[in-house]
Amino acid sequence: MTPRRPHAGFVLIELVTTLLLVGVIGTFAGFFLWNGINGYLASKRNSETALAAQVALDRISYELRHIASLETSTAPPVLNTSITYRSTLADLTGVRRLRYDSQAIYFSKDGGATENPLLRNVSTFRLCLDSANLDNDTGNNLEVSAIRVGFNVVDVGTPFDVRIFPRVTIANPPSVACP
Q1: Distance (Å, rounded) from C-alpha 168 to C-alpha 66?
Q2: Could you tell me which of 111, 129, 135, 136 has the C-alpha nearest to residue 173?
Q3: Residue boundaries of the structural domains of the chain
């Protein structure tokens, strides 16, 4: 009878099979980890963009809620693009302007030599004035009853819209009436 040798290690087939299984498991784990990280980063980017858009909408609402008059002589309002106005608040002095141009919304003060970007990556922008005869005068002159502002941001599919009701009565220029 010949003496039997004890099995001291793995056979080559066992090693190759183990390495192959570890590689397949590692590939799937890496794929799921990659998708999870990309999903987290996309969610974070969309959340930050939506927050920036909401802050911009709040700032626009604050500015236009306290509008005292439209400045039609210096820069006439252009439907869906810009509005130039004065404010009733002491901290918002001078002629102010809200303007959309080349995928950004800008604020400027006193002539607009320096424009401050309020929000970038804006794909569409809407600005219009609702009008009504608020003071019930006999001439049927229309005043601004509401200012509608809306925009879409490139990364976020949800439109951001607000309807602002000015605190004072303002004569409505016919060039910025809502369609």
Answers
A1: 8
A2: 129
A3: 41-176
What pLDDT sits at residue 84? 85
**Taking a C-beta distance cutoff of 8 angstroms, is the pair 76, 175 a contact?**
yes
| Coil/strand/helix, residue 12 | helix
DSSP state of 174: G
Residues 6+ apart with CB under 8 A from 51: none
Beta bridge partners of 100: 105
Residue 70: what pLDDT?
83
Cα separation, 100 vs 121, in Å, equals: 11
* Separation of alpha carbons 78 and 88, rounded Å: 22
Q: Which residues of the chain have pLDDT under 70?
A: 1-10, 72-79, 111-112, 139-140, 173-179
- Asked if 111 and 118 count as a contact pair (C-beta separation under 8 A), the reply is no
Q: With H, G, I as helix, E, B as strand and everything else as coil, classify residue 112.
A: coil
Q: How far apart are CA 70 and CA 72, in angstroms?
A: 6
- Give DSSP secondary structure letters for 33-79: HHHHHHHHHHHHHHHHHHHHHHHHHHHHHHHHHTEEEE-TTTS--BT
Residue 59 gets the label, from left (phi > 0), alpha (psi -120 to 50) or beta, of alpha
> Which pLDDT score is estimated for 8?
64
